[in-house]
Amino acid sequence: MATAPTPTPNTTSTRMMATNNVFEDCVFAIVQGGELTENYAAQMKESVITGGGELVELESNDNFDDITHIISATSDFPQYMAARAQMISVVTPGWLTHSQLRGKQSPIRQFTPDPNLFFSNVVISCGDIPPGDKDAIIGAVLALGAVTHICALSVDHEKCQMALEKKLKVMIVLPHWFDDCLKLGKRLDEKPYLLPDPEIFRKSPEENVPIPSTPQLLGATSSRPENFPIPTDSPRRSPLTVFKDRRVMLSADLNINDRLRGIIEDLIVGGGGRITNSVHKTTMFVCHWREGREYVIASRAGIDVGNLSWLYHLITHNQWTNPMRMLLHYPLPRNGIPGFESTKITLSNYGGEARIYLENLLAHCGGEFTKSMKPDNTHLITARAKSEKCAAAVEWNIEMLNHLWVEESYAKCQVQKLTDPRYTHFPPRTNLGEVVGRTQFDPELLEKMFFSRDPTPSPEDPKPVRRAAMREKDRNSRNDEDFPMGGMDGQDAEEELPRPKMSVTRRSRTSILSDASTPAGRRINLGKENDTPSSTNSRSAKDKALYQIHGLAPDIALYEKEKKRKGPVWGGERAANKFEKEKVKKEKSAERSSSPAIDVEDDHSESERAKKRAKTKASAKSGRPPPEIRLMITGYKEWIGNINKEEHDKKKLRDLGILVTQDPTTCTHLAAPAMVRTQKFLCALAMGPTIVSTDFLDTCIQKNTVPVVDDYLLKDLANEKKFGLKLKDVVARAKANKRSLLRHIPVYCTSEIANGPGTYQSIVKANGGDFHLYTGKGGATIKPTKPEEDPNGPEPVYLLTGPKPEERKLWPKFTEMAENGNMIPMIVHSEWLLDVAMSQQLKSGDKYLAVND
């Protein structure tokens, strides 16, 4: 990952800068390690003394008397947690240099080594970004730690031009980088987002992305390494200092032989440490399982508890590291994670150390790992959404997630929700292997689940004050005189971004919006006007029914999963289809006998489902391979009024590996004669598909072969000029948006609008928006709020309308409802939605206002 370099102070210039007493009344302790080498630390010490500060040694017994600042390049040193609990400022070396340059002490937030604040070394300057989006980006950077970066949509802005002309060491990034980092709760490499030629626009998501290296996983891929880290027959070994003044206890559950135990004990003693067999006297406890009296006592005492892999890591690197920082450095749960025992999981797009690490992590969770993927797999863990396994996962209805789901399930000791968007987000030109291994344990959660304290103190439970101090540290570690950090929490990450609520107390706009289709987020809150409480009796009846349903839940889930399983063998979908058919026949015959009225729409939809099932079974019998192209077609004149030809051509296309679909959310390609503003075109466009001319269809059908797709890409200069956009740029923006252009933006629609509200509903839903029919008589409404309840100010809410008198009557009611909910009413023509969907850019509704007519 490209990060801003930490300035190394020059001794001569430092003396000139620090003539005033910048660090007067400050007492510093310096922790060497990482980029803070011995020579660098010597320069730091001289700078402190020149600036009027005082230096002391950092003691190992958590005694911070008189210390005001600890300088460290990382949070990975033994006294970090205790220092934070005692409100000692922990800063990176850059804080010292920056304070000297300013002539006064800088705020510490930007210079915290806390890994949770992954924007801590980011100083952001916004270019041509809308004002509201600037506030959202700046707020996110401040909340997570943050001139090293310029955020812009193009390099045309004067700030960008100046940076390029002067060759400044700054990164000019698209706002999409911030959005993807916030969605994942991890800092990604900036390279694919760098202007003037960002890779996410230049290359398609299908193109290969190199598998990144993972140096953070060295020595942390297994809970029990196979080999000892250093040769045991080496005649000369430099003494270890990491064990100096420490008392180490090796647990019996490590199951190591006497020879290996002797070697480890010799290394510890030779490095100035001591071996103890009393858990009450130890300062480092090494064990394999998270169980047993000694584990509980050591953990409650707040001492370092790790496994053999952690001990080997200390010996190899001769540098202390927190055993909770890497998941496989901490003792294992003996019975795995509840819920993983029934999983069968495979990996895709991970390589090297990251793949070994995830395989071991899955084994410790209790799941079954498979190298190849078959229809009976339950989950696919992938670093990108593009591979043969990914395509098969979609075809076989297998859950597809990124590695954060596995890591956070293990770290939180329970299976995380599959619906959390953090686990299904895949940036288009990023391999998520680069952020493997950055998930850490939460000490409070481990305490609650494995060594919770008894109500009454015990003589076997020493040092109760320190555990409380550690809990206080964890609260402060997300605060560092700044803001809470939710992005590291598996299910809270999205709560830092806008998320809809069920009651309409509006949410603040913290998601990033831009004219370059930065994915948007809005706070909407929809409720019912006439909610009435149920009686006690009905509530009791509901509770009983719910209890019965819960008892049947495993069977229902198994049935639904089995019903989706495809294949020519009996069972699965075939058996379910037969059962469903017989059930439908009985219901229909009962309806005909009891009532002459027949629901034509339901009958038609059932007929369509029956046809679909028949096609699925025919495909299974014919042994056709999974389709390589899922094609949506609009405006194809050859099929108009000729159903037989349409069915015949679709069958021929399917034999060629092209599946004609009516579902825009699954299509990979879109065929159209031109850029047309049809419902199909606009809905499919939100997926960012490959758009081809209908000539592609003609060639496939006539020559019975699939030509090179790139030779048939749609070119429509006339409509590009008419709409004022380029189709290539629109598709690139749609891919970056990932169907989130209108995310959480409330869009209402009148029932009398031309072409019917259903057309606009599908377009809004395809772009991730919230659609509601507005009649002025109830239904979904905006809850009244006061301006002070929303400190970020009002947000727009849209009403799609036409010029009919019955529609105009609704305008005053809608305006009143929006204003009472502290929102900006935007009563617009449908052209606003069509232009937004066609351009894949969020446009202001001012020029589309119906009142202008």
TrEMBL record:
Residues 214-225 have a biased composition (Polar residues). Residues 18-113, 147-195, 238-328, 340-412 form the BRCT domain. PROSITE patterns: BRCT. Gene3D superfamilies: BRCT domain (3.40.50.10190). Coiled coil: none annotated. Residues 460-481, 580-591 have a biased composition (Basic and acidic residues). SUPFAM superfamilies: BRCT domain. It comes from the Eukaryota. One of its GO terms (cellular component) is nucleus. GO terms for biological process: DNA double-strand break attachment to nuclear envelope; double-strand break repair. Residues 212-237, 450-543, 580-627 are annotated as: Disordered. Transmembrane segments: none annotated. This is BRCT-containing. It comes from Hyphodiscus hymeniophilus.
